[in-house]
Amino acid sequence: MENASEMAITQMRKSVEKLGSSTEKYKDPTLMRFLIARSMDADKAAKMFVQWQKWRASFVPNGVISDSEVPDELVGKKVFLQGLSTEGYPLVIVKASKHYPSKDQLQFKKFVVHLLDKAIASSIKAREVGNEKLMAILDLQQIGYKNVDARGLITGFQFLQAYYPERLHKLYILNMPRFFVSVWKIISRYLEKATLEKIMIVTNDEEARVFVREVGEETLPEEYGGRAELVAIQDVTSAFPPLEG
């Protein structure tokens, strides 16, 4: 006898077929991410899934966004890809002080996909299961007004919510300056409740200790209380499998 989750997945597969698409090559964990994102409503999850399929086919036709497609975003070395956290999630670090609002929005959007895909793929052992997640740090240390990019952050979160449902395990925001609080309030309006619940703004010693413990000292760079070295995402050259799509 099917349990509630199995019944929801079965119904979602049928709903996707009614929308003219197929779930044949996707495992249950992938479909469950969309169901969770839509409160286990099979029809809404199916609609979201089909929209994701269409987006993926048009935006990432080759299955991957290569370094050569995002040269302007890589040159500043602002994103780093570390090892796995204590619970096995790949860690992405974004240093906001090295970021400047992009003049090429298409390239920026491709960069968002590039970094999310590469981070998620870095945790795949052999074949994608479908429920892989990532952990992230947004470091606002030494950020100036010239680095503030509310539009870019909103774009990143919108991509996460629309095309990478349930891929974010946790986001830690470090060193938030006072002037950025009002910027964050604007950005937060675009975030779903489920996304906001995964974000921790580290503001005191106790939260910092929790942050270090959850990420793990072996993966966390020295400047954040760990023992690892920073590794720019373009310097991670291992061959990772392309994500489903």
Beta strand %: 5-15%
The H/E string reads HHHHEEHEHEHHEH
Which structural category fits the helices and strands?
alpha/beta
Question: Tally the helices: what do you get?
Answer: 9
- Tell how many strands the DSSP assignment holds: 5
The chain-level mean pLDDT equals 95
Largest β sheet strand count, sense and barrel closure: 5 strands, mixed
Indicate the percent of residues in helices: 40-55%
Quaternary status of these chains?
single chain
Shape: globular
* Distance between the ends: 31 Å
Main β-sheet, spatial strand arrangement: 1-2-3-4-5
What's the Cα radius of gyration?
Answer: 18 Å
- Unreliable sequence segments: none
Provide keyphrases for this structure:
245 residues, alpha/beta, 5-stranded mixed beta sheet, 42% helix, 11% strand
Describe what you observe in this structure.
The structure is a single chain. With 245 residues, the protein is an alpha/beta fold. 42% of the residues lie in helices and 11% in strands. Helix 6 links the parallel strand 3 and strand 4.
